[in-house]
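Thread amino acids onto this structure.
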């Protein structure tokens, strides 16, 4: 439900998932910390390569576009984000982030619940859109339609059938195949509704690229193209408010130095282009991007890469964001380690609560399963 007498339909939330467990220490680098050099004997960023934030911390090379946005005051860095009793399994940890339930196995995603509150009658099947294959569990919620787009340029059901009569016949067959099982059991009922919603949304989304003009030239990699697709849908004013995509894999057990830099060049470049695009189209103040990963990585490298850890980093980026650092960088002192990992300093549900209440203007407790303190990274009046 909307809170504070406001509606949630004014602002856009773009969520970027860094799948695989991003290396926190080599993203925001404590380049003057002696313990960093002691524990990272091989997999470390040299001080002269760092893009300095201050005398202690800096962005890794490859993050030049995000550094530019930081210098413009548009990046909030959330240090040490995580949850109690961290789980180092990719599947379980991501599931915790998706459902906001660290202690139980949830059936509803936090963003699925948010979309339900934004559009309780499901009047718009495009309130939430995922850009990529499959549907992240964060968006899954019974009765909440969400479109999942692999390639917006060719998206749609049977787009290659040009003859209208043949296409209608194919679509009718699809509708009966997915829609005829309603009432038999809950799973088939869900699948039937999903298929029906796909029919409603597919052709609408295919109109977005033709309506798009921009001076921004995105790179050709999948990360950039996903955010370009998000921009196309946003500017088409189809009523979409939650945009989701992911990039990876950040599971850098080996060969990390080269792989991690390449991944961050793609992410940073895509984010920079996307923010320039939304600014050019007058959507800057109403668009915020949230970037996260399921966990950080071990403090000590393994000689070529890093293994699964705990405490991590998130970023919130946008014109309406109060740039700065939130939370404390976890201590690297040996006595402060958590079984060889960085401790988390703040629960990820604090960040969710801030985004839900101060950005989307929704009541957060039922969505995040509890009451959590908020940060103040959203400017007043937004």
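Threaded sequence (382 positions):
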């Amino acid at each position: 439900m909307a809170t504070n007498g406001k509606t949630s339909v004014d602002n856009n939330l773009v969520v970027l998932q860094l799948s695989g467990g991003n290396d926190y220490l080599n993203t925001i680098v404590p380049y003057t910390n002696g313990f960093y050099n002691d524990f990272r004997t091989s997999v470390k960023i040299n001080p002269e390569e760092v893009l300095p934030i201050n005398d202690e911390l800096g962005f890794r090379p490859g993050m030049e576009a995000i550094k530019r946005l930081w210098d413009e005051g548009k990046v909030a860095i959330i240090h040490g984000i995580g949850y109690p009793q961290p789980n180092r399994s990719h599947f379980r940890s991501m599931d915790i982030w998706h459902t906001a339930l660290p202690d139980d196995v949830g059936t509803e995603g936090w963003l699925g619940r948010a979309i339900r509150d934004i559009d309780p009658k499901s009047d718009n099947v495009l309130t939430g859109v995922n850009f990529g294959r499959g549907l992240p569990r964060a968006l899954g919620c019974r009765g909440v339609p969400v479109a999942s787009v692999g390639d917006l340029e060719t998206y749609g059901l049977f787009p290659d059938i040009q003859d209208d009569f043949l296409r209608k016949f194919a679509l009718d067959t699809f509708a009966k195949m997915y829609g005829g099982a309603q009432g038999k059991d809950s799973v088939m009922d869900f699948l039937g509704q999903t298929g029906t919603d796909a029919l409603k949304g597919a052709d609408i989304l295919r109109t977005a690229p033709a309506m798009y003009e921009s001076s921004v030239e995105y790179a050709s990699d999948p990360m950039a193209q996903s955010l370009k697709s998000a921009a196309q849908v946003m500017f088409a004013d189809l009523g979409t408010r939650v945009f989701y995509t992911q990039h990876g894999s950040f599971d850098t057990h080996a060969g990390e130095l080269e792989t991690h830099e390449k991944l961050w060049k793609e992410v940073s470049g895509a984010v920079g282009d996307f923010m320039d695009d939304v600014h050019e189209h007058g959507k800057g103040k109403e668009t915020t991007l949230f970037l996260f990963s399921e966990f950080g990585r071990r403090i000590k490298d393994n000689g070529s890469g890093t293994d699964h850890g705990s405490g991590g980093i998130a970023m919130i980026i946008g014109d309406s964001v109060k740039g700065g650092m939130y939370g404390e960088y976890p201590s690297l002192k040996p006595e402060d380690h958590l079984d060889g990992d960085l401790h988390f300093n703040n629960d990820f549900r604090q960040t969710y609560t801030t985004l839900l209440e101060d950005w989307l203007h929704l009541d957060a407790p039922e969505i995040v399963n509890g009451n959590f303190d908020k940060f103040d990274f959203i400017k007043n009046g937004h």
